[in-house]
Specification:
The structure is a single chain. This protein has helices spanning 2-34, 42-47, 50-66, 72-96, 102-134, 139-159, 161-185. The protein is mostly helical. Helix 1 (2-34) crosses helix 4 and helix 6 packs antiparallel against helix 7.
């Protein structure tokens, strides 16, 4: 149960990182700074330092603004296809295996990176669908909801790890159900793909 709870925290943080990596870094780093005895390991110590929190704050502000501009948000998501899985892997290692073993680091980091990537893809698919259906009008509201959800998911992952584990499983189901369908119907720029024209009569 203890191992499951650790993975619940690590994967829950990774899932939140797929929505807003910098919000999660602020929550985890802030708590690690306030309660260092509850967040052991070099990664938690680093994230709780003043420079790390300052950088995370600036990047969070940039994401908060960029993610609410239609068009710019798609570029931002493309750029963070690499950033969010890395942050998710880092946080999973920090939560699951702070200095336990190389094998546990690999398992935690790999699973955390994968969960963050799935969360990121669900977020991106949702944004593409919103752009296609509303011409980007609803994107700002959706982005704000994602920011709030990232903060809440981070807190759930830290204080209710088994609940976070269930939410991560739900994320996997959501990915399997929605993302392939969206990928077939919406192109990279958020335009809905129309049906192929009927063949010309002979």
């Amino acid at each position: 149960m203890e191992t499951a709870a650790l993975f619940g925290t690590g994967l829950g943080l990774a899932a939140a990182s797929g929505l807003n990596a910098y919000a999660v870094l602020l929550v985890y780093g802030g708590l690690a700074r306030l309660f260092p005895e509850a967040f052991p390991g070099p990664i938690a110590h680093l994230l709780g330092t003043t420079p790390a929190l300052a950088v995370a704050s600036v990047l969070f502000l940039l994401e908060f603004l960029a993610d609410k501009v239609p068009g710019l948000d798609h570029f931002w998501h493309l750029l963070h296809s690499f950033v969010r899985p890395v942050v998710g892997a880092l946080l999973a290692i920090a939560a699951v295996a702070p200095g336990q073993s190389t094998t546990m680091d690999v398992v935690a980091g790999g699973s955390g990176g994968l969960v963050a990537l799935l969360s990121h893809l669900v977020k991106s698919a949702t944004r593409l669908t919103s752009t296609a259906l509303t011409a980007g009008v609803a994107n700002a509201a959706i982005s704000l909801a994602e920011d709030i959800l990232a903060f809440l998911q981070s807190l759930v992952a830290i204080f209710l790890p088994m609940v976070a584990l269930v939410l991560v499983a739900g994320l996997g189901v959501l990915f399997v159900v929605n993302v392939p369908r969206v990928a077939r119907s919406v192109d990279l720029f958020g335009r809905r793909r129309g049906k192929a024209p009927p063949p010309a009569p002979p």
